[in-house]
Amino acid sequence: MSIHVDKSRAGRCYEWAARVVANMGGECEFELPPDIADLRVVHGVCAMSDGSGRRMGHAWIEYRMRVNGIPGNARTSVVYDPVGRIHVPTKLYYIAGGIDGALCVRYTEEEILRHWSSYKHFGPYDAASLAPLAPKECG
User: Fold this and answer.
1) Which candidate among 22, 34, 59, 109 keeps its CA 20 to 30 Å from the CA of 43?
2) What is the Cα–Cα distance from 31 to 72, expressed in whole angstroms?
3) Number of folded domains in the chain?
4) What backbone phi and psi angles, to 5 degrees, belong to 105?
5) Considering the domain boundaries, does residue 105 fall inside one?
6) What is the strand order of the sheet 36-47 is part of?
7) What is the pLDDT along the chain (139 residues), one digit of tens a residue?
């Protein structure tokens, strides 16, 4: 699976993810699906989409949504990638991106707003989310 990268959004994933979750406006043009739960901005490390094998810090949105046709309150985990502008099942996104979910840092809307207010940027905020990168890849 390859994710198309919108060149106008490249390098701004932390901003796009924060703006969508915190409803900050701007050029987001993304509406959240109805009846979602557990909305989070996630900071982590994934493979670059150019097939080079290089890795990069990245931000995306995770949420849980009701599954049509399944009775009860069954929900499935979905990722919205703000650069590729796609919705993908979380498991598939993590496999395709070589992402270790245990090494990701997840933020609620309130946490994103608090960090943005304190640091005056959209992230990353926690060195743990960049730990899988070699030092030369962080700069």
Assistant:
1) 34
2) 25
3) 1
4) -115, 130
5) yes
6) 86-89, 75-81, 55-66, 36-47, 105-107
7) 445 556 666 788 888 888 888 775 555 556 667 778 888 999 999 887 777 778 888 999 999 987 776 666 677 899 999 888 888 899 999 999 999 999 899 999 899 889 888 888 888 888 766 665 544 443 3
pTM > 0.70: yes
Query: Quick check: is 137 in a domain?
Result: no
- Residue 7 maps to a domain: no
The structure tokens 């599954």 sit at 67
Residue 1, CA distances (Å) to 28, 69, 97, 105, 120 in order = 24, 26, 9, 24, 34
Radius of gyration of the chain from its Cα atoms, rounded to whole angstroms: 15
Q: Which residue has the tokens 């304190």?
A: 118
